[in-house]
Structures are given as C-alpha cells and as structure tokens.
Amino acid sequence: MRLINSFKPIEVKPDYPYPFGYKTCWYAIKNETTQSVIEKMKLQTVSESNWEDGIGRVCNSENCVFVSPLIDGYILIIGITPDDEHSNLKKHSLHFSELQYFGTHRVTEYNAWAKYKDGKIIRGYCYIGDRHEVTWCEGDITLEEVLLGFGKFPRSNDELLSENFDFENLPDEEDVLAIAKAWGVDTTFENKTHEKGTGFICKFLE
Predict the structure, then answer these.
(1) Which of 70, 74, 76, 73 lies closest to 197, judged by CA?
(2) 150-187: per-residue pLDDT in tens?
(3) What is the DSSP string of 62-85?
(4) Residue 58 to residue 148: CA distance in whole angstroms
(5) Which pLDDT score, from 0 to 100, does residue 60 have?
(6) Alpha carbon 77 to its chain's center
(7) How far apart are CA 78 and CA 104, in angstroms?
(8) What letters, b where the CB count within 10 A reaches 16 and e where it falls short, cover 163-182?
C-alpha cells in the first residue's frame, strides 16, 4: 500500500479548485459541510490541504481521500476506490439527502455514474470496456443524460451482443465528466469563478 508522503510538507495555502476527473473516482454530496461529511463518513483527518496538493497526493495513493471545501453546493470526496459492487454507495448514501458517484479509469475503460437521494437509487450506470460489459444499469435515465445524448448507450449486455449495435455508442471518460457537470459540479472548473480554499486529506476508519 502506498502511503501519503510524510517527508514533504503538505501545502495548506488556500488555492483555487484544481481540475480532476480522469483515472479517478469521487463522491459529490449535496447540502453538507466538510466537517459533517467527515463525521458521517467516519473519516479520520490526516491533514489540512489545499486543492492541488490534496488531489495530487490522493490520486497517487491507495489509502487516502481528499475532502473538498463546499463548492457549488457540494462537498467532494476525491480518490475513492471504484465501487464495482455498489455496496459502499448504498451504505454511504443513507447518511445524505443526495449523494452522487462518478468513476473513470482509462486502462480498464471503467466509466460509471450514479445518484442517490435519501438512500434510494435514482440512477446508476457502469460500463467496463476491457470486459465489454454493462455491469450496472438501474433506474430511469435522467433528463440530463437524455440531453447529453446518453440514450444511445447500451442498457444491457444483450444490446451489446446485438448484430445491430453501433460500437461508436459507448461511454467514455468525457461522458462521465459531462454528467458530473450536468448534475452539479464541473470538475474542470472552467468558465466559473470560485474562491480559494482548503480541504482535508482523510482516510476511512471502516
């Protein structure tokens, strides 16, 4: 297990939100504070950190996450483990009025997004390219997905095996970032002015 480098001081000088989203999994939690998210998720604070240093460290570690300050009405937890079985998603969603999940990984072509409200699944979708499988498709397609053209994506493995299926109609990492933006937070942080701030590097206690 790779640990956070304890020999280089963690930068705590506030900075602007740092772009992320590729080869990363994250939660977006609505209408909460950073501290309430840390408490409800049973996280142990390792250190205060600014955006760039925090994201850079957790994206190169397997044991820590970066919990952001409030941005556009959401707290972000960046660097979580891909939730292939969705068990953690269901458990964590019970604590919040709205929890969103997003994941990308170029090597496995893992592309996933989900939204829960009050612990109930609204929408969940996952396609893993190296397995050529739709591993999750639950709930009605949301309006935001329709507007982004996601209706073309396969909803089952039977569709993938169909002779008429167009293999141009598969999700990729750009689609994950697009639905994250449509549902609330643009992780490229383009075309919008944000304040400087700091979050926390944390680790899960359970």
Answers:
(1) 70
(2) 999 999 999 988 888 888 899 999 999 999 999 999 99
(3) SS-EEEPPPBTTEEEEESPPP-TT
(4) 30
(5) 66
(6) 7
(7) 12
(8) eeeeeeebbebebbbbbbbb
- On whether the CB atoms of residues 46 and 199 are closer than 8 A, the answer is no
The answer to whether 139 and 113 are in contact (CB under 8 A) is no
H-helix or E-strand containing 54?
A: helix 51-58
| Contact present, 55 and 20 (Cβ < 8 Å) | yes
The parts of the chain modelled with pLDDT lower than 50 are 1-3
- DSSP secondary structure of 81-143: PP-TT-HHHHHHHTTSSEEEEEEEETTTTEEEEEEEETTEEEEEEEEETTTTEEEEEESPPPH
How far is 71 from 184, CA to CA, in rounded Å?
Answer: 10
**Nearest in space to 201 (alpha carbons), one of 67, 100, 6, 19:** 67
Amino acid sitting at position 4: I
Contact criterion met (CB below 8 Å) for 146 and 183? no
**What sign does the dihedral 68-59-112-139 (CA atoms) show?**
negative
pLDDT value at position 167? Answer: 85
Q: Determine the pLDDT at residue 29.
A: 98
- What is the Cα–Cα distance from 55 to 16, expressed in whole angstroms? 12
